[in-house]
Amino acid sequence: MASRPLISAFLLLLLIGSVIHSSAAFHPIIRLPTERETATDSSSHGDDDDDGGLYCASWHLASEINNAGGWTQIPSRCLSYVKYYMTGKRYESDCEVIGNFSLAFASTVEMAPDGKDAWVFDIDEALLTNLPYYMDHGFGSEVFNESCWDEWVASAKAPAIPSSLKLYNALKQMGFKIFVLTGRSEHQRQDTSKNLELAGYTDWEGLILRGASDGGIPATVYKSERRSVLLNGGYRIHGSSGDQWSDLLGFAVAKRSFKLPNPMYYIG
Ligand SMILES: *[C@@H]1O[C@H](CO)[C@@H](O)[C@H](O)[C@H]1NC(C)=O
Ligand SMILES: *[C@@H]1O[C@H](CO)[C@@H](O)[C@H](O)[C@H]1NC(C)=O
């Protein structure tokens, strides 16, 4: 059994320890954690150099919120960042959070009995994920190859983004009319609707593709014009979901737009 002096000495040590500890807590200079301390799994998968992950996470954010402007390929140093983001749990989680916000907004909409309450979805990286294609094509680090891409579209093998399928079905059940508005071409209609159905999407009100006359029109203009047609047809576009700002901006915009993540390619 410990003697009284020993216990007192122990208590004194504890006291000194807590004084040192609390004086450290009152240090006037705010110390930012070092990069290594904050390094998460994703940032450590960013690149070979130490700040690659940090840079790529910042580049990704700038790109998602449209600060980066147009780009044709991901920065080459960000290949492993994008690969890790897309194939790890983060992409799925980001999509799910957006799907939940979308649904929360949708449930505030007062549906009219005229059946004209609408929601617009883009397809690629919005309803469907082309991750299997991009896994074979460097996650956006390769220059876009149209003939390869067309082969992939014809295969009709793109899976659904699970949270988008959930949102789609919930909106349908709530009575929204769903319009699918894509930059894919009219000649890809059959393969596209086949792919949507295989992935679980059914009962859309309209599937709108780029016609021959939409040839050289920028995506923002083409999509705005098609949304205008819907508005002129008496539809109220409450929500719009897309992975590109060109899916969402322009005119005849939805009351709420939901930007899904896509660090692999940019469409202006
Ligand atoms: C999204 O909502 C569902 C249903 O309310 C919930 O189970 C899930 O945890 C939410 N997901 C996220 C990432 O918040
Ligand atoms: C695009 O891919 C096809 C194969 O699908 C290939 O034959 C062609 O050379 C590629 N084009 C370029 C510019 O890399």
Automatic annotation (TrEMBL):
Keywords of the record: Glycoprotein, Signal, Storage protein
Keyword 4Fe-4S belongs to the record: no
Signal peptide, first to last residue: 1-25
Pfam families for this protein: Acid_phosphat_B
InterPro entries in alphabetical order: Acid_phosphat_B-like, Acid_phosphatase_pln, APS1/VSP, HAD-like_sf, HAD_sf
Highest taxon, organism lineage: Eukaryota
Family the entry assigns: Belongs to the APS1/VSP family.
NCBIfam families named among the record's database cross-references: plant-AP (TIGR01675)
Function: May function as somatic storage protein during early seedling development.
Protein name: Acid phosphatase
Species annotation: Hibiscus sabdariffa (roselle)
Lineage: Eukaryota, Viridiplantae, Streptophyta, Embryophyta, Tracheophyta
